[in-house]
Each structure stands twice: as C-alpha cells, then as structure tokens.
Amino acid sequence: MVDGSWSIGAENFEQIRQFLFTLVDSFDVSPDHVRIGLVQYSDNPLTEFLLNTFENKDDILNNIIKLPYRGGGTMTGKGLEFMSNEHFVGKAGSRAAQKVPQIAVVITDGKSQDDVESHAKNLRRRGIVLYAIGVIIFAIGVGDVNQQQLESIVNLPAHHFLYTIDSYQALQRLTDTAKLADFVFIVDESGSIGSENFDLVRSFLLSIVSGFDVGDKRVRVGIVTYSDQATALVYLNNFNETDSLLNFIKILPYRGGGTNTGAALDFTRKNIFTEDAGSRKDKGVQQVAVVITDGESQDNVTEAAAALRRAGVTVFSIGVEGANKKQLEVMAGQDKARVFYVDNFDALEKLYKNITEVLCNSTKPGKQLNV
C-alpha cells in the first residue's frame, strides 16, 4: 500500500517505483506461489491491481513501471480499511482460507490525517502475529514520518516489522540489504535420524539454498553437522556461487552418533561465525543460524544458545518428530516465530516455503538506516 500524497513529489515517487520493481522482481510470482496486489492512497485509496489481476511477474513489473503518481492528502486509515475490504478477500485473489500467509507493506512519508490504529487492529485481528496465517503488517517510513503512528500500524514486536529511513533514495538499500546475509545451517546427523531421513534433510537444504543468491558479496552459507561432535563441512567463505554449493549438499555425508546440540552451537560460534571463516559481522551483515534436529540434546543448550545470540546471531530452530520443543524455543530465545516443528521428515519439504520467507524477512536491515 503506497502513499501517493503531494508531500512525496514526482521525483521521489519514481524512487518508489524502482523499489517496488526490485522487490517484486525477487519474488516467484504465479497463481500457485506469490501473488501481489497494489493500492495507492492519498485522499482516497485506489486499486492499481488485485492479487488475482496478474498471473506472471512481467505483467506486474510493466504495470509498476507505468504506475501513475496521483497526489492528494494522507489518509492512511482509509487506505488500510480499503485494503482489508477490497484486497484481502477471496474474490480479489486472497488465499487466507487456504492458510497462505497474508502480508501488507505500507510505505508512507507523512502523518496520516485520519485514524490508523483501529483499522490496523482490524487487519491484525484477521490473522496472527507469526509468519504463518493472517494479515501481517509491515511499515516502511520515510523522512519526516510519525514514528508513533507507524508503531500503531505494525505487528509486535514493532522493531521486527518497522523500518524508518531518511530518504526515498534509501529505499533501494532495503532490497539490497535483504539479499545480504551470512547463514549457517547446524544439522543433526545423529543415529536416530537414519540415512533415509537424512536424504530428506539434504533435499530440504537444497530447496532453501537454491533460493539464495550465493556470492562473496551477497549471501554466504556455512554448514555444520553434529552428533557426538560437531564438524564444519562448509565455511562461510568456501563457496562463491549457488550451483557448486548445491552440488556439495547433494553429497553431504551422514555419520550417526549421539545428539550434543549445545556443543554444536558452541562450535559454530567459535569456529564459523568468525572473520577467518568468512563471517561479515564486523561489516554489519546479518548473522543467522538455523538448527535442524530430531531429538533431545544430551547436553545443555541454554548457555550455548544464549552465547550465540549474544554474539549477534539470530537463531532459528527446526524440530522433527521427537525433537524437544522446549529446547527448540530456548535456542530461538523464546521467540516462537523462529521455531518450526513438523511430525516427520517427509513434511520438511512442505515447510521450506514458510521457513524461506521467514529467513528472508530476518535479513532485513535494522530499525534505523541513515544513508
């Protein structure tokens, strides 16, 4: 939902077009994958296109290039109400009934001239504040925007969903930064998994990593496997392109053993999230760890996970079958939005789209960007 009020101006609106173009170009757009709608609002909201107007990316991109700048006041509340009633409904292409996550992105540069809180609450009531189902509202505020008002729009915690920048030129930096991260997968290879299920873990990793733009200046990926002991199979600076990494994952070895998850977390912090191993933490690049396990750790995970988070690493945990759910939550810092659980290894493949979306969202920049 894009603010098209007079305060933006034609030159800045062109920056919005470029931002939308870059963002949409990164999605897998189709009726069965990502659907995109667009509302422009000022005094009144207007549908530019619905979720089911276009079935392919090129048509959306062509429409964005020609997106008109309409001008007017700033009635954000009216825009939110319009979006709820006219866009997030089945006849407009919404798949909420099929439990497809519903996400709204609000871009504005000024204080709304009407009430936004009640309409934002209505949108949030239609979903849950998780990356699973419902309407999840993000807001990108530019320039002299009302911070308190934006915080009343977004889901909680606000710092996960709210980004403020000081110029429209900086919008492009948001899309660039979202493609920049250091990911380390910490994979349980204990005896309880078995070679057949480990094949499914390989397939899951292939699905996730294939969606990354792996490169020295883009996404870096590391892989640690563990049982009784942890082993670094891929350091963050080992692979500079996606295909070669995918080929390695296909032959990822499986060894078996016990389940010492705490030791694996410590090993990863000390040996992988380091400058020598390719970590770019000192350059401000987001550090993300993804733990995949099917059992209860035989050692303590609490201190190791806390140390990893204190080192600036965002931890996600994925549990399968007999995984200890309490330990999964402890590793993720009690943030349930970063905890995933499936009943069997076959279900991992169905999970990858949700976890990929969450991982991509986790790599967005911090609350303030001064560029």
Automatic annotation (TrEMBL):
PANTHER family assigned: COLLAGEN ALPHA (PTHR24020), COLLAGEN, TYPE VI, ALPHA 4 (PTHR24020:SF86)
Superkingdom assignment: Eukaryota
This protein's species is: Maylandia zebra
Q: InterPro entries attached here?
A: ECM_Assembly_Org, VWF_A, vWFA_dom_sf
Alphabetical list of Pfam families matching this protein: VWA
Any GO CC annotation of this UniProt entry:
extracellular region
Name of the protein: VWFA domain-containing protein
Q: Which Gene3D superfamilies match?
A: von Willebrand factor, type A domain (3.40.50.410)
Tell me which residues make up the VWFA domain. 1-178, 182-355
